[in-house]
């Protein structure tokens, strides 16, 4: 139970009943009506408010309760001015049980009673008396109504803040959920690219070497040729396993562990050339300078994918790899003199899609130039910063 509404009204009524007895009994005036009205006010509050807290959420019931209380209060004030001291209880209930804009009307009604009690002794038989009475009433009504308005505005702002906080919390939860979904999706894409760049390319090379070994057996080739193909396949399997583990742990590719990007490209090209028997010329131009780890990985993977495509499709006689350090970009160009292809038809393969995702994810650009019979070129550029 709210101790304020459970104590203040009853305490005021008890004190005012005592004042009534103290003021009127010595003069021989009757006090029965006043005491009955005090008891009626106490019973009205007790029955409709104190003992029935569930009714406080019912606006119509509370409107009836407050109206009845104001009527009883008005009768008491008109019978004796000291009952104006009961008006604080009226203000209390006006703010507790009335909703806007009825709260404003309730506060005004109680203010009028408070002003009437304060101007009880004013002679109202003259215009000057009525003016004084009106001034006293206005001095009560205006500030109390303004206070009620400000209190309502503050409640509205608090409610709006609570709504905004609830909306922000809900939005935050949605954003966190979307971020988690985006993170899962991004991680899946990363693993797909890494699997393609490591396991898929490695397995393709292993299959190629095993086919070459099978052909060597069918052609009764020298044992050294067979052992070379098998050794190459074994080496590719080990490299693929190592790269797969690095991909799972999101580590830098092995060629970049202890070498700069240009040296790593040269190492990758040398190994690819040894496996496929196609010469690769690696050239670095411009002033070599450090670039971000993400850019190095993206360009290295782009070179690996381009070389893998040359091995699978191009039937090239030679390949050129150029790494260019420009003013604001680092560019990688891989060109071959193979059979070429139509980019519009083969530009949607997962390898090229993954390559494009890597480069464009760093605000870079990827261009594919080729036509049947005229070789192919892939140009990847990423900003330095």
What does this molecule look like?
It contains eleven helices and five strands, in the order ααααααααβαββααββ. The protein has helices spanning 3-24, 32-50, 59-79, 87-97, 102-118, 127-218, 223-248, 261-276, 293-314, 343-346, 350-360, and strands at residues 280-286, 319-325, 329-336, 365-370, 376-383. It has a five-stranded mixed β-sheet, with helices on one face. The chain is rod-shaped and about 140 Å long. The two termini are 66 Å apart.
Low-confidence stretches: none
Q: What is the number of strand segments?
A: 5
Q: What's the overall average pLDDT, rounded? A: 82
Main structural class: alpha+beta
CATH homologous superfamily placement of the domain at 259-385: Histidine kinase-like ATPase, C-terminal domain
CATH top level of the domain at 259-385 is Alpha Beta
Provide the succession of SSEs. HHHHHHHHEHEEHHEE
Question: How large is the radius of gyration?
Answer: 46 Å
Helix content, binned percent = 55-70%
Write the CATH fold name of the domain at 259-385: Heat Shock Protein 90
CATH architecture of the domain at 259-385: 2-Layer Sandwich
Shape type: rod-shaped
Ends distance: 66 Å
Q: Give a quick account of the main beta sheet: strands, pairing sense, barrel closure.
A: 5 strands, mixed
Helix count equals: 11
Strand content: 5-15%
Keywords:
385 residues, Heat Shock Protein 90, five-stranded mixed beta sheet
